Each structure stands twice: as C-alpha cells, then as structure tokens.
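Form P-L/3: holo structure prediction, ligand protoporphyrin IX containing FE.
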Amino acid sequence: MTALQNLQPPRISTADSCSSPITCLLSRCGNMSDKKTPTYTLAEGCPIASSSTAQTFRSKNTPASSAKSLVLLQDTQLIETLAHFSRERIPERVVHALAVGAWGEFEVTKDISSLTNAKFLNGVGKKSKVLLRVSAVAPQAGGAETQRDVRGWAMKIFTEEGNQDFVFNSIPVFFIRDPIKFPSVNRSHKKNPATNASDNTMFWDYHNNNQEGTHAIMILFSNRGIPASIRTLNSYSGHTYKLVNDDGNFTYVKFHFKTNQGVKNLRQADADKLAGENPDYHTDDLFGSIEKGDFPSWTLYIQTMKPDEAEKYRWDIFDMTKVWPHKDFPLQEVGKLTLNRNAQNYFAEIEQAAFSPSTMVPGIAPTADPMLQARMFAYPDAARYRLGVNYQQLPCNSPVSPVYSPYQRDGASRHDTNYGRDPNYVNASLKTVNFKGDRGANGVSDGGHEEWVAGKVQGYATEVKDDDFEQPRMFWEMLGRTEPDEQRDLVSNICTHLGKAIPRVQKEAIQTFKKVDAGFADQVQKGLKL
Ligand code: HEM
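OUTPUT (holo model):
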C-alpha cells in the first residue's frame, strides 16, 4: 500500500443500500432516523398533488405529452420553487469560507477553579455541548481542502452562563499584529484583482514588506502547512486572554488544543494529488470517522502568566507574532474535547454558525491586544451582515442557557416572541429585571493592568526589529533537529511557491530569510537557482 492509499478516508455513501459502515445519507435509505412519510406542501402548508408539474395553458388539441403550452403566473408552486432557489446563497465568509464542522462535547479533566470562575471549567467531569467549525482561510467555499493554508478553529461551547467561543488557528502565531493590515494580508493570499487567479508575486511582495509575519510564514511552509486530516491538527488561541477568578484577580492565558490522534500532515505532492482526486478530502475524513463511531478528541491545555511576570517577560504578550516557549510557561491540562455527532444539515448547522472572540462567559476576559480588540468588533459585525441582526437566534447559535435581552428588539427574521409586551426600555418600573454580578461585559477585572493614566491619543504602528527574527530562527533550528530533516521540506515548499513569483520579489524574500539564518537563505537561493 502506498503512503497515499493509506490516507484515503472512508467515502460518504450515497448508495441505495448501506454497504459501507457509514450510514447512507439519502432519505430513500432505511437508516434515516425519521421514518414517518411526510406530505408535500407549499412553504405555507398548502398540500400539492405533485412536486414536478407546472400549470400551463394549452390548446385542447395539444397532446398531453407535448410541451407546447404557456406557463402561468398563477403557478405559486413553480414561482416559489424557482424564486427560493435564486436566494439559496447567503454571503460567503470573506475569509475562512471553506469548512468542515461537527458537534461534540467538552469535559473538564483538571481543576483550575483557582484561576477562573467560568462555570463550564469548574468541576472535574463537567460536560458542555460544543459546535466546531474548522476552515481554510484563503480558498473560497467549494475549493480543494488539501491546499497549503492556516486552518481556522471556531468552537462554540454552550455553557450555563451563555456561549463561550474559541476562535483560534492551527498555527500558534499570526502574520500580523496591527489589525488594520488584516484585509491586506488576506487579499495578498487570495486572488489578483485583475486576473482573478492566485498570484504568488502578490503573496510574497506582501510578506517581503511586512516581515513581522516571518515566523507564521515559516510554519505555513513547513510540513505543518497542510494537515492530513482535521482530526490530526492542533489549534492555538494565539492571543493572550485573561482568566478571572471570584476575587476579580486575573491570570494571563494562552489556550492550546492538542490532537489525541497525533499531528499528521501531508507532503506537498500527496496534497496536490488529493486536491484533484477528492477536493472534499477533509470533509469525507471527518464526517466518515464520526459516522462510524470513531470519535476524534483533543486535550485542552493552557499556559498561564501572572501580570507581574508579563511586565518582565522578554516578549510582548500582546504581540501575536510571538509564542511563549513551553520551557518558560509549561502546558497545564484542563479538559478534553470530543467530536461525536455530524450535522444533519451543513447549511443550517455549520454555514449559519457565527463565532466571535467577543462571545465570552464570566471568568474569561479579553486583554489589551490590539488585534483581539479589533476582532471583537469584526466578527459580530460580519455576522450581522452575513446572517442578519438576529443571527444569535438561529438554532446553531442559540445558547442553552436562558437569554433575556429585551433592549434588543425587532429586526429582520426575528422568530421568537420578541419579548411580547415586556418594556423595551431600561429601568422600567412596569416589570422588574434581576441582574447578576458586579461587572460589565467581558469581565473587566481589578488590578494594575486595567488602569490607564496620563494617556493621550496617538497613532501607533509596530516596527519590525531584530528580535522579530529570533523565534523564526528558533523554529528553523528546531526543524533541523527533526528526523528526517524538515528544514529540507521547508526550503522545498518555499521554492515551489516562491518560484512562481517574479525574480525581484524572489530576491527580496531571500533578504528576509537572511535575517533568520544565512544558511536557510542560501538554501532557498540555491533552490530557486538565483
Ligand atoms: C484583526 C485581525 C482579524 C480580523 C479583523 C478578522 C476578521 C474575520 C472575519 C470578518 C471573519 C469572517 C466571519 C464571518 O463572516 O462570520 C473571520 C473568520 C475567522 N477568523 Fe478572523 N480575523 C482576524 C484575525 C484572526 C486570528 C488572529 C485568528 C485566529 C487566532 C482568526 C480566526 C478566524 C476563524 C477561525 C474564522 C472562522 C470563523 C467561523 O468559522 O465562522 N482570525 N475573521
């Protein structure tokens, strides 16, 4: 068996009979859970004799088998069916459009109640329902899933005090640390505005001139840049968040989900072959595994840092181009995520899901990381545009805990009772409302790092300094210690991609790599025959 054959995921069966272990997905299969035969109706309930006729006006002499006739405007069935089809698409996510998702549960395995009062993290053995959506960033929906790209990890934990979203990535650092660059870095990874094709010159030109992303670029072009399966990738918060305890004290934290299946990646040649043979490779693999009861799981770890340690630490903890090396801040186990249920319908449960770093429960809080602050605005803003202002009411997004938010009313597609007769203004004497806790949204906590004195409004953009190349250098050296040597793969992957950029841009990229390591730059230069 070749390496590639080993990677073949089970195909999802759509056959009449379920010969494979994977349940047949068509309603004609007896394995469907709902066996009651439904009666076909129009959308407002009117029963109709056939799903495939059109009402026509035809001459008495025209044989029934002839198409010669006039279609009528009164045919609500035909008009409704066609009009709905034209409106089936909603705006695609501007990034992270190509995705796979599933349901599962999160279980607490270690007690961290001294660090956080988040209810879902308190009590070893406690379980919460989870929705996970894992996406590639640059490709459009429907693209090949084995493309080299960062994978996004969007996870909603349904807790007794509202939803907790973890909107992470499969690499621990990011390409930028200035939020205003986000549209630019993504455009450079997508399509050229003139040709509408991917453009490697544009890609490398962006990175040559925004070198704070060198660490992320090197991880992307290492073997970690193409996961073999969604089941075999890790995810990382990237940002520093806060854990807040009952006393209002906080600890800085980074989150890591580590796959219990072991990290596995694809080599470029295998990934390219699979992209042609089965563009839905990752979907088939995850869906098929869950369907046959082989449930993937991840262990959640945290790294924690006290505020006074943060002040002395050599790396800026709000700079998400940097990791906290594990030898400085070791991983501590917290819990286990298991995916155990496929969606019944991708659009309803995965496409309509909306995740945001601003969706937080008491006990977890944001920090002053400018990227995180910007993201907390961007995601709900995107969801209001993509799904409408009442997107939190969609079943896939709706909390399992009670919601009473009567000052947010009306709006398109409101499909609950809209708080009925309850007052729609604050401090109404006509109906009392209970309040809980003594803090505002997102757990504003006590302590020196929340005090801002003698400041003034100032423009700020980060500058690239020598120490921005230190962690990339550590990464390069680490690859050199692997067996077989992964430095060679990194160089080869870069050359394959960078080789399609114009020579000037290739030369400029080599200048960046020189700042990481002269030998690394030499190898790329040789690989490009420059
Ligand atoms: C300033 C920086 C960033 C901005 C402005 C931004 C903005 C966005 C937007 C607008 C979307 C589409 C949301 C939608 O249509 O529902 C998105 C998706 C996503 N982003 Fe970001 N992003 C940023 C950085 C990051 C970082 C650093 C990470 C990971 C650490 C990340 C992870 C994700 C994920 C996982 C998704 C997919 C969410 C889903 O499945 O619905 N993003 N981002």
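COMMENT: The domain at 98-175+223-393 is CATH 2.40.180.10 (Catalase HpII,  Chain A, domain 1).
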